[in-house]
């Protein structure tokens, strides 16, 4: 690898990002996400997410530019803190970890948050993903679950249908 670059995703990146999401989650777990939905949700009139992609330039392979990671985020609003950048997913493929690509992405996301007057950046980390917990703590993150006692809840589609019909 000679160099990497991080850039905003474009519609034509969607198949590659979906492929990386499947690799990250384990094949099959995101089967419900259709490429058409993914494309519409990110690049339609009202984007539900934004995405950065990381590319490397390979000197030898026939396919010289290769996407090796992504960060998916959106903007959220919290009545206690106002605007915030919500980092939803962040992944660099294993052979390219530890090269500073993740740090470059976090730098761009921090700049984006500041430029859009966000007061902070939120993200979820699976507690058993200890390397990532440490990665974020080393960079100054606060653990809101232990410090403030937050728990993540969900109403499933079935529950929404039931409540909506009550
Ligand atoms: C978290 C992640 C995105 C960081 O990306 P990255 O490109 O490796 O980030 P950097 O190169 O900037 O930094 C890597 C850190 O891991 C360490 N590291 C070094 N070699 C590494 C390797 N082969 N694999 C993993 N981490 C390594 C580095 O020391 C560095 O830590 P430090 O800067 O605090 O000392 C990446 O490890 C990843 O995709 N992990 C799996 C998915 C995940 O857990 N995502 C985050 C939760 S949402």
From TrEMBL:
Short name of any one Pfam family annotated for the protein: Acetyltransf_1
Domain N-acetyltransferase span(s) in chain numbering: 4-166
InterPro entries attached to this UniProt entry: Acyl_CoA_acyltransferase (IPR016181), Diverse_Substrate_AcTransf (IPR051016), GNAT_dom (IPR000182)
Coiled coil: none
CDD domains reported in the protein's UniProt record: NAT_SF (cd04301)
This protein's UniProt keywords: Acyltransferase, Transferase
GO molecular function: diamine N-acetyltransferase activity; spermidine binding
Gene3D superfamilies: 3.40.630.30
GO biological processes: spermidine acetylation
Family under the similarity heading: Belongs to the acetyltransferase family.
Protein name (record): N-acetyltransferase domain-containing protein
Source organism per UniProt: Nothoprocta perdicaria (Chilean tinamou)
């Amino acid at each position: 690898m000679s160099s990497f670059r991080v850039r905003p995703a474009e519609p034509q990146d969607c198949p590659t990002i979906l492929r990386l999401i499947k690799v990250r989650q384990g094949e099959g777990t995101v089967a419900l996400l259709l490429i058409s939905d993914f494309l519409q949700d990110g690049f339609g009139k009202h984007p539900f997410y934004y995405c950065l992609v990381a590319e490397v330039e390979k000197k030898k392979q026939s396919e010289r530019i290769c996407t090796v990671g992504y960060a998916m985020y959106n903007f959220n609003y919290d009545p206690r803190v106002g605007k915030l950048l919500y980092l939803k997913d962040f992944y660099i493929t294993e052979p390219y970890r530890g090269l500073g690509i993740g740090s470059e992405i976090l730098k761009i996301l921090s700049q984006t948050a500041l430029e859009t007057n966000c007061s902070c950046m939120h993200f979820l980390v699976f507690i058993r993903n200890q390397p990532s917990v440490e990665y974020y703590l080393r960079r100054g993150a606060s653990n809101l679950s232990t410090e403030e006692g937050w728990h993540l809840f969900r109403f499933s589609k079935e529950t929404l249908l039931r409540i909506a019909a009550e």
